[in-house]
């Protein structure tokens, strides 16, 4: 059998910011989109970075994020602690 669709309901964004004491930040879809645009969609290896591609990426993420719970994890703590935080926000702990 083939699965024709998949649902993503949680999105985890990672950042490493020693100046931010917060370890878990819940974001609205708008805040998450702003962060992604400001940080090159967290992808420094984009082959094409013109206005058309920027518009396509922005619209894709706007639609993608609108129905998701979005959490940002600050990965300054040790890896084990960051992993525990991810499990906690996903309800897997």
- Span from first to last CA? 31 Å
Neighbour order of strands in the largest sheet: 1-3-2
Helix content: 25-40%
* Total domains: 1
Using the CA coordinates, give the radius of gyration: 15 Å
Q: Assign an overall shape.
A: globular
Largest sheet, if any? 3 strands, mixed
Q: What's the number of extended β-strand segments?
A: 3
Instruction: Name the structural class.
Output: alpha+beta
The number of helices is 3
Rounded mean pLDDT is 95
Q: Order of SSEs, N→C? A: EEHHEH
Question: How much beta, percentage-wise?
Answer: 15-25%
* Uncertain spans: none
Describe this structure in words.
- This protein has 93 residues and is an alpha+beta fold.
- It has one domain (10-89).
- The chain is 39% helix and 17% strand.
- It contains 3 helices and 3 strands.
- The chain has helices at 29-38, 51-65, 79-89; strands at 10-15, 24-27, 69-74.
- The protein has a 3-stranded mixed sheet with strand order 1-3-2.
- The chain is globular, with a radius of gyration of 15 Å.
- The protein starts with 9 loop residues before the first strand and ends with a helix.
């Amino acid at each position: 059998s083939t699965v024709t669709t998949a649902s993503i309901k949680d999105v985890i964004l990672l950042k490493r910011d020693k100046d931010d004491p917060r370890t878990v930040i819940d974001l609205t879809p708008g805040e998450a989109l702003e962060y992604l645009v400001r940080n090159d969609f967290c992808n420094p290896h984009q082959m094409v970075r013109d206005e058309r591609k920027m518009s396509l990426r922005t619209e894709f993420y706007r639609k993608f994020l609108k129905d998701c719970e979005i959490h940002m994890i600050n990965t300054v703590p040790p890896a084990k602690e960051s992993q525990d935080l991810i499990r906690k926000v996903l309800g897997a702990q």
